Automatic annotation (TrEMBL):
<dbReference type="GO" id="GO:0005507">
    <property type="term" value="F:copper ion binding"/>
</dbReference>
<dbReference type="Pfam" id="PF03712">
    <property type="entry name" value="Cu2_monoox_C"/>
</dbReference>
<dbReference type="InterPro" id="IPR014784">
    <property type="entry name" value="Cu2_ascorb_mOase-like_C"/>
</dbReference>
<dbReference type="GO" id="GO:0004500">
    <property type="term" value="F:dopamine beta-monooxygenase activity"/>
</dbReference>
<keyword id="KW-1015">Disulfide bond</keyword>
<dbReference type="InterPro" id="IPR024548">
    <property type="entry name" value="Cu2_monoox_C"/>
</dbReference>
<dbReference type="GO" id="GO:0042421">
    <property type="term" value="P:norepinephrine biosynthetic process"/>
</dbReference>
<dbReference type="GO" id="GO:0042420">
    <property type="term" value="P:dopamine catabolic process"/>
</dbReference>
<dbReference type="InterPro" id="IPR008977">
    <property type="entry name" value="PHM/PNGase_F_dom_sf"/>
</dbReference>
<dbReference type="InterPro" id="IPR000945">
    <property type="entry name" value="DBH-like"/>
</dbReference>
<dbReference type="GO" id="GO:0006589">
    <property type="term" value="P:octopamine biosynthetic process"/>
</dbReference>
<feature type="domain" description="Copper type II ascorbate-dependent monooxygenase C-terminal">
    <location>
        <begin position="3"/>
        <end position="95"/>
    </location>
</feature>
<dbReference type="GO" id="GO:0030667">
    <property type="term" value="C:secretory granule membrane"/>
</dbReference>
<dbReference type="GO" id="GO:0005615">
    <property type="term" value="C:extracellular space"/>
</dbReference>
<protein>
    <recommendedName>
        <fullName>Copper type II ascorbate-dependent monooxygenase C-terminal domain-containing protein</fullName>
    </recommendedName>
</protein>
């Protein structure tokens, strides 16, 4: 859902897809253009279902990880290149009961997340080559053969995964120092040890991460 907030009041959503399927993605053309005013807020909201999984799902670029992206075409052009938000790192780890790591303070870890410094502990990403999407022209929309090829490619992409790098490697390398009860665990192993079947735990984490503190960053075109 692409939510639209103005002066603290939520307006009707700009776009919404309650039956999203990775294999059948499409762009949506609005029936009526929506005007975005200075000070308006736009929120891209995604709901995930990982009920069939037995281990935590983290955010990342793999199709097996969580992604929530919205691409919006607008005019007139502005110098804004992108905006993102994240939970403050110390608040994020406190949500999972972690107070301190060996070797890295929270400011350093936050910079690693933001890629403002070289995170030497992050392993080099190893990836398979993703399926190649067929080149399309405006006349191909009604071409059954081209459509079948595109659908086949999307199905293959659903199994494409980037492994061995990014946030997972960072979590593997963060070793807990405090509190004592979690000491010497990696943050990844700590996540796996949490009782995810307990609803009180998951509700508390969801409430803290979803409705808790967030920082927003925007980048301008060079």
């Amino acid at each position: 859902t692409l939510r639209h907030i103005r002066a603290g009041v939520e307006l009707p959503p700009i776009a919404q897809d309650k039956t999203y399927d990775f294999k059948y993605q499409q762009s949506r053309v609005l029936v009526e253009e929506q005007q975005i005013l200075p000070g308006d807020e736009i929120i891209t909201e995604c709901v995930y279902n990982t009920a069939t999984r037995s281990t935590p799902t983290v955010g990342g670029y793999s199709t097996k990880q969580e992604m929530c992206l919205g691409f919006i075409t607008y005019y007139p052009r502005s110098p804004l290149a992108s905006c993102l938000s994240m939970t403050p790192v110390d608040y994020f780890f406190q949500t999972f009961g972690v107070q301190k790591f060996y070797h890295f303070n929270m400011t350093t870890i936050e910079r690693m997340f933001l890629r403002l410094t070289d995170a030497q502990i992050v392993k080099k990403t190893v990836s398979t080559t993703p399926p190649s999407f067929p080149k399309l022209s405006p006349d191909d929309e009604l071409n059954d053969a081209i459509n079948e090829e595109a659908i086949s490619t999307l199905k293959k992409m659903a199994d494409y995964s980037v492994e061995g790098g990014g946030e997972n490697s960072l979590f593997d390398s963060l070793i807990i120092e405090e509190p004592e009860e979690f000491r010497n665990r990696s943050f990844t192993s700590h996540l796996h040890s949490l009782p995810w079947a307990e609803q009180l735990l998951t509700q508390r984490i969801e409430r803290a991460v979803y409705r808790g503190k967030h920082m927003t960053f925007c980048r301008l075109y060079n």
